[in-house]
């Protein structure tokens, strides 16, 4: 079972690595290589057969030439000076001939056979001798030089003997022809394959251009630089593009309707809750405390649901928001709200922007910076720094900090490390949810100032 899972994982990784273009080119290369290899094999076999047939015809012509040049002189076989083939008279010419009597041995050798290849004729080059009037063609040379051999047997009536004309030719020239053919065929087929692959690559690139355009626009959609993927696609992709655009429009409209509904709900509840809260000031006793607590919970719940409604989105915003101005704006507001604490606010600004809706960014940083002001003694430091993947906002204070054992828990909804100050433990949970919507993250640590360090990382963008 583990081996099966590993194989499946390996196949899945290969599928992810090989894109459509790579798959098409790989299939083309495999099919083309197989076809050209088969064509090359067929051509090679055909040419070798043609070379062999040509060699047989040449040797047969030499044998017939010797037969016509042979004469009977004093009951002996003789040949004139002209043998019909000049190579038979030239040493080391590669063409040899001799005549053999069925029971009497060799009766004649060509000058080339006598001078340069004295072994020719000492033993039969082929395993069988042809019958009178027939010829045999084959290859000899298992223990010596490789040669084509043709044997032709006749009955010479004036001599009263059965004679076999043997003609032998070295295979080296014929092998050279085969090698030359193979070389030129290989070069030709490889050149054709390269040209075909280049043309196929261009055709695949052109054919997949709409797919690449759609993928690029989808990336722009994710990055927030586009509102749809357009409709300029071929027939096979136009329906898919239309469905995607309709889905984007539907999701955008649905998100806006949901957000407007939550806004309407908040406005509808805001006045009754304010009236109830003011009325409860005139009521004393334990019941008043319970009702005040429930009213606060209702207000917190409405705020939380509004934040969640704002987090429902399908793509990144089209415009990036500069971080430092938002941080400074929140910091100035909180300095006035916590004027009695006389908090010293230190801002480390940078000209960086994030792909986050401005209202969501205010919600995120407002919750986190307010926590710092709430729990600090005197100092709060906010730093905006760039990272390899985006922008990080680091918020530090010199308060009590958050124990390492409590850091994971306080990021959960309703969990609080502090039970003395008012609140319901939703601020960090809302910040975590909003950060995750934008593919960011929120981490807690120890500050150099002695208190808590909150690090919020969000995707960056050009303002």
Low-confidence stretches: 414-425
The N- to C-terminal Cα distance equals: 52 Å
- Biggest sheet, in brief? 7 strands, mixed
Count of β-strands = 14
Give helix % range.
40-55%
Rg from Cα: 48 Å
Describe the structure.
It is a single chain. This protein has 463 residues and is of the alpha+beta class. It is built from 11 helices and 14 strands. The strands form 3 sheets. Strands 8, 9, 10, 11, 12, 13 and 14 form a 7-stranded mixed sheet that branches. It has a 5-stranded antiparallel sheet with strand order 4-3-7-6-5. A two-stranded antiparallel ribbon has the order 1-2. Strand 3 (95-101) and strand 4 (105-109) form a beta hairpin. Helix 2 packs antiparallel against helix 4 and helix 8 (323-337) packs across helix 9 (358-375). It is rod-shaped and about 160 Å long.
Task: Summarize the structure in short.
Helices cover about 50% and strands about 20% of the residues. With about 475 residues, the protein is α+β, with helices and mostly antiparallel strands.
């Amino acid at each position: 079972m583990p081996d099966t899972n590993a194989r499946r994982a390996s196949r899945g990784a290969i599928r992810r690595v090989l894109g459509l273009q790579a798959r098409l080119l790989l299939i083309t290369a495999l099919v083309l290589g197989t076809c050209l290899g088969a064509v090359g094999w067929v051509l090679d076999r055909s040419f070798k057969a043609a070379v062999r047939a040509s060699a047989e015809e040449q040797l047969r012509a030499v044998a017939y030439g010797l037969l016509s040049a042979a004469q009977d002189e004093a009951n002996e076989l003789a040949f004139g000076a002209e043998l019909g083939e000049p190579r038979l008279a030239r040493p080391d010419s590669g063409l040899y001939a001799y005549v053999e009597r069925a029971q009497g041995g060799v009766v004649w050798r060509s000058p080339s056979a006598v001078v340069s290849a004295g072994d020719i004729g000492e033993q039969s080059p082929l395993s069988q001798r042809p019958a009178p009037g027939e010829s045999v063609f084959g290859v000899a040379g298992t223990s010596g030089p490789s040669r084509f051999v043709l044997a032709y047997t006749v009955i010479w009536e004036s001599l009263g003997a059965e004679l076999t004309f043997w003609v032998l030719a070295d295979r080296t020239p014929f092998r050279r022809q085969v090698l030359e053919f193979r070389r030129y065929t290989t070069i030709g087929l490889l050149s054709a394959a390269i040209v075909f692959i280049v043309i196929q690559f261009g055709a695949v690139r052109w054919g997949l251009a709409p797919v690449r355009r759609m993928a690029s626009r989808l990336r722009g959609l994710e990055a927030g630089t586009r509102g749809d993927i357009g409709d300029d696609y071929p027939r096979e992709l136009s329906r898919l593009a239309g469905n995607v655009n309709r889905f984007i429009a539907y999701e955008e409209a649905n998100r806006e309707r949901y957000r407007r509904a939550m806004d309407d709900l908040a406005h509808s509840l805001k006045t009754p809750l304010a009236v109830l809260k003011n009325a409860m000031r005139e009521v004393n006793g334990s019941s008043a405390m319970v009702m005040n607590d429930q009213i606060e919970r209702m207000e917190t719940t409405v705020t939380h649901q509004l934040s969640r409604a704002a987090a429902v989105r399908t793509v990144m915003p089209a415009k990036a928001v500069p971080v430092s101005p938002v941080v400074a704006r929140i910091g100035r507001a909180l300095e006035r709200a916590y004027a009695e604490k006389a908090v010293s606010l230190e801002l480390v600004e940078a000209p960086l922007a994030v792909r986050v809706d401005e209202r969501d960014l205010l919600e995120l940083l407002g919750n986190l910076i307010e926590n710092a002001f709430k729990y600090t003694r005197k100092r709060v430091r906010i730093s905006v720094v760039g990272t390899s993947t985006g922008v990080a906002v680091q918020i530090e204070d010199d308060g009590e900090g958050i124990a390492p054992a409590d850091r994971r828990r306080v990021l959960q909804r309703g969990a609080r490390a502090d039970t003395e100050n008012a609140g319901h433990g939703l601020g960090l949970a809302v910040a975590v949810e909003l950060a995750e919507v934008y593919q960011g993250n929120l981490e807690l640590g120890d500050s150099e100032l002695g208190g808590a360090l909150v690090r919020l990382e969000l995707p960056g963008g050009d303002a």
